[in-house]
Design brief:
heterodimer, A: 338 residues, Rossmann fold, B: 165 residues, alpha/beta, four-stranded parallel β-sheet, 5 helices
């Protein structure tokens, strides 16, 4: 990866609705970040260096070789930046779970803008807002119109906004996997466009725990048990998502006794992460009586969206919770909090 | 006021060995049932991946029926018990997204129960009709204000930077 004498590539990194963890993950490359800098000129990285959007706007289309885009899209400004980076980049990579599947910001899809604004600006106990002011797209002050981006009702993934060439999963992606991707991009050793850059096995494959026949009478929350260190966590009744989740993390969580929460997203061939979890868990629940089944599910999985769609609600087949759209019947009260 | 009656779209997954034969029997016996029901034959109700159901709702179904052999009578021994548990799991998840349990119903029908299956189709259709249309995709329709705002960002950037877009 020495850039000496070779034509250096142009690299951009951008963030939209994200927490900043993906940026930290890039820095997790440690001294290898110097190899990245040797191979690529970084032309845009707002988290780390001072560039202006206008500089990117002024570049010819397709002149950036690779853009690593993290974060989901929930405002008009983020959508603009997604379109801009798409136009200027030869290869656009959805970097990390937010861009790939919507991730934690995507859980806001259980609500709509009004509900979110009400909680954030009016109802939260720490908020003092006697005039009940919530963000407006336009505000006129002393004859000058100030504008804010429009806040969407529905969080979108990057590929629901613009076309995406590759996906790098993880919340955040592990530095080793980022490095693999950088090498693959630099050497042109890439899979078919539209693929995930990574392996196609599940977390169970990397997990050293012993697996036996699974039968579950009761799901336990993590605080209810100290798991035995050798046996599969799912067999011990912990809701471990390793069975549906793509490998690549090294099974870090199950190795320390904490069930997989699915941050690496679905493995190849899984269209809907939650559906795969439902299928798998329904197969191992050890009950045939409808009432007992309902009890096991209701008591053991009190927050099914948080358990099955923690990272993937916007990317899932249903994308979001129901909103009261014009002409449809309102959902019965309490339905959103089942 | 005269309003057109809402005709729900119902997708029914029927197993090859019992419930599809029940539907067949209903046909041969000229038992009529709601024409709202669209039948998809699968080998076993246990073949119905929850993703099929989610996709049906996402593509515009107002209700989904999964029908299989009676418990204990599955052609594949115990797969319909998995169906029973998957259905419970689906109902639990869909409820959290605001989809009522009447929209996802599990029905048992043996090959001899054409009339019972037809009656179940009528009942589900009526229950879903009462709930009204689901129109799932309307949940994330984008409006013009949204795209206009995206178009405007370049100008706003230029304005604030005092450069030409």
């Amino acid at each position: 990866m020495s850039g000496n004498g070779e034509q250096k590539g142009k690299l951009a990194l951008y963030w939209a609705a994200s927490c900043g963890g993906c940026e930290i993950a890039v820095l997790g490359l440690a001294e290898r970040i110097l190899d990245v800098a040797a191979a690529f000129d970084v032309v845009f990285w707002p988290c780390v260096m001072d560039f202006k959007v206008h500089d990117i706007e002024a570049m010819p289309d397709g002149s950036i070789d690779v853009c690593l885009f993290n974060g989901s899209v929930r405002t008009s400004e983020q959508e603009y930046m997604a379109r801009l980076m798409r136009k200027k980049s030869e290869v656009l990579v959805a970097f990390g779970s937010c861009a790939h599947e919507g991730c934690i910001p995507g859980l806001a899809n259980l609500h709509d803008r009004d509900e979110i604004f009400r909680t954030a600006y009016l109802d939260s106990p720490s908020t003092v807002n006697p005039d009940g002011i919530v963000p407006q797209p336009e505000t006129e002050i002393d004859g000058v119109v100030l504008r804010l981006p429009i806040f969407y009702d529905t969080v979108k993934t990057l590929d629901q906004t613009v076309s995406v060439d590759y996906y790098l999963p993880g919340c955040p992606p592990e530095p080793e996997r980022i490095w693999d991707a950088v090498v693959a991009i630099k050497e042109g050793d890439l899979p078919a466009p539209g693929s995930v850059i990574g392996v196609d096995t599940t977390v169970c494959h990397e997990c050293p725990r012993t697996r036996n026949e699974k039968t579950i009478k009761e799901f336990k929350r993590t605080w209810q048990t100290i798991p035995d260190p050798e046996t599969c966590l799912l067999e011990q009744g912990l809701l471990c998502c390793g069975i549906a989740t793509r490998a690549g993390c090294g099974a870090l969580c199950p190795q320390v006794g904490s069930p997989c929460i699915g941050c690496y997203g679905p493995n190849d061939g899984v269209e809907d992460f939650g559906a795969r979890m439902m299928t798998a868990l329904a197969s191992v629940i050890d009950a045939e009586d409808p009432e007992e089944i309902d009890r096991i599910i209701r008591d053991g999985i009190p927050d099914p969206i948080g358990s099955f769609y923690r990272f993937s609600l916007p990317k899932s087949l249903l994308r979001r919770g129901r909103v009261n759209v014009a002409g449809s019947e309102p959902a019965p009260s309490g339905a959103a909090h089942g | 006021m005269i309003t057109e009656r809402f005709e729900p779209k119902i997708v029914a997954f029927l197993c090859n060995w019992c419930s599809y034969r029940a539907a067949d029997l209903a046909g041969t016996a000229r038992t009529s049932y709601a024409s709202n029901v669209r039948i998809v034959r699968v080998m076993c109700s246990g073949r119905v991946d929850p993703a099929f159901v989610l996709k049906a709702f996402g593509l515009g179904a107002d209700g989904v029926v999964i029908a299989g052999c009676h418990p204990g009578e599955c052609h594949y021994l115990e797969q319909n018990f998995k169906t029973l548990r998957r259905h419970a799991m689906l109902r639990h998840v869909l409820r959290s997204l605001g989809i009522e349990k009447q929209r996802i119903q599990l029905v048992w029908a043996s090959a001899a129960e054409g009339r019972q299956l037809a009656a179940a189709f009528d009942r589900v259709t009526e229950e879903v009709r009462q709930l009204g249309p689901l129109r799932w995709r309307a949940n994330w329709l984008e409006d013009e204000a949204q795209s206009a705002a995206v178009e405007r960002v370049a100008e706003e950037h230029a304005e604030s930077m005092e450069v030409r877009p």
